Structures are given as C-alpha cells and as structure tokens.
Amino acid sequence: MSSITIPAREEHHPYMRPLSILRDLPAVADLIETCFSATMDSDGRRYVQDMRRAGNDNSFLKWANRVAETTSLPLTGYIWEQDHRIVGNVSLVPFKRNKHRLYLIANVAVHPDYRRRGIARILTERAMQHAREKNVQDIWLHVRADNSEAIHLYETLGFQERTRRTNWQASTDPRLDKLETDIAITSRQPRFWLTQNKWLSRLYPDALGWHANWNFSTLKPGFLNWMYLIFIDVNVRQWAATRKDSLLATLSWIPNGRGDGLFAAAGERSDPEALTALLLHARRDLHYSYPHIALEFPAGLFDDAIQAAGFKSLRTLIWMQAT
To answer: pLDDT, tens digit, for every residue of 299-311?
Structure first.
C-alpha cells in the first residue's frame, strides 16, 4: 500500500485558508474559468455561471453555510490568497452512499502566474488531511487524461487510477441515413432485460455510482415500473440491436433535462456495428427534444463504433482513488 503524505500544520502556509462561502465564490469561479476555459465543456461553463450566481444569492449563501459538510456540492475547500487575490483553490465534495462516506477532491486550480511553486500539491494535501480529520478514508478525484503533470502529482500523493471514462457528444438530425446492415433496430423487449442489466452493471460500475447516481431501475420492464414512469412524467426510450433475433446491444434514453441521458450496453463480444446503428438511430429519433445528445462510456471500449455514429470525444477523465 502506498503511503500518503500528510502536510505540515496549516499555519505553516500563511497564504492558505479555508474557503469562505460568504465571500469567495465569485473569485473562485473566475479562477476556475481562467485555468480551464480552453478545455471547458458546456457543463463546465454552466458550473462556473452557477457558482457566480450562488455567490450573489444571500439566501443560498446562508443555507450553504449550514450544510457545507453534508451536501454533495463544492462548498468546502481551501484557497491560496496571495498579493491580495485568490490564486489557488481546491474543493472538497462530500458524498454518502449506503451509509458509506467519501470525499471527491475537485477544482484544483492555480493561476498561471503562480504555477510551479508547489501550491497545487499543498492544497491537495490539505484537502486529504481535511477528509481524514472527518474520519473519511475514501478519497477520490478525477483528472483529464491529457494532463500529465497533474496525473504525476496525484500519483506521488498516493492516488491510483481506477477507471477512465470518455464523454461523447453528437448533434441530432432526422435526415441522417440509416446504416446499411443486417442488424435490426427495435424497441427493447422485456426478455432482453437480464442481459441488458448485466452489461450495464459492467459498463457503469457501482464503484462510481456514488458520483454518477446511475439508477437503472427505470429501465426494468413491468407494469408497475411503467405506471411509475407515467406518474413522474418521465419518457424513457429504449432500443435494441438484434441480428436474427439475437441481442447485440441496447441503448436507453433517460431524460434529465440536459441531453446527456444516453446509456449504451453491449457485451465484450458484441458486434461494434450494432452500437453504431443504435447511436445513429438515437440521433435521428431524439431530434425533437435536444439539439445535442451525449454519452459517457468507458474509454477505449467501442471508440471506433461511437465515432462512426458521428459522436465526437469531448474529454476523457481518469478516476483516481487514494490508497
């Protein structure tokens, strides 16, 4: 087991202090935008905008100040304030699943003018120490796969890679041609559920369920589930790709208001063309709801098939856990 470096006491770093929700959020939003604007997707831009709005909402700030350590929002953390401005930040996001507590370290950002001074390391170490002061040993973070310097830093702090996942996006278009293939695209049949659920469990592992909140119970066939979806007004869509009545892959659409509710499922030996055909079908069929749709999927699995359906890779994240 790797050893974890615990830093010196906080007062040895006079520029570091705890995040103040009441006054720091707008400046932290500016810092995050400065550091990550070149690689920021639509969710990232929305996140920065929400942070700015929250920093100017007095009712939110009063509520957040009371629940910072219990809600899964980036309301706890540490900042590096030097030359009368915030130039470094780290956020701590608490999660709980099945009574198990853990922390996600996020928003590790240092202004370009202050890099290579060890600030990111000190802030990350302090975040790890904070988690252990709260008796939480399960600590996670994610980092872009192309950020080699950050990956090296986290490895030296005792983090190990657990998985890589890629975010894909494509526009919707009802005029797209169908794939010329012997693979048939139909509605998902109840008899496919057991296989589909097994594939989903492998591709969307429970180890990350605390963060993504994957809940596939809405995909389960049955009258009661159908009635429940009608009651909550959720229009789940499901398709299956078959060849001679043999299941090759499934694709599900669970609307969440943002366009990123696609969940693909396929076996290790499934024909990649089946996933391509399903994704093309979704691009045509969902045009009435969203101009763009997105898929998160394990990196390196069916990449060519997803690209063949017109999806572009937005980013690949490495999920790392402290050991």
So the answer is: 999 999 999 999 9
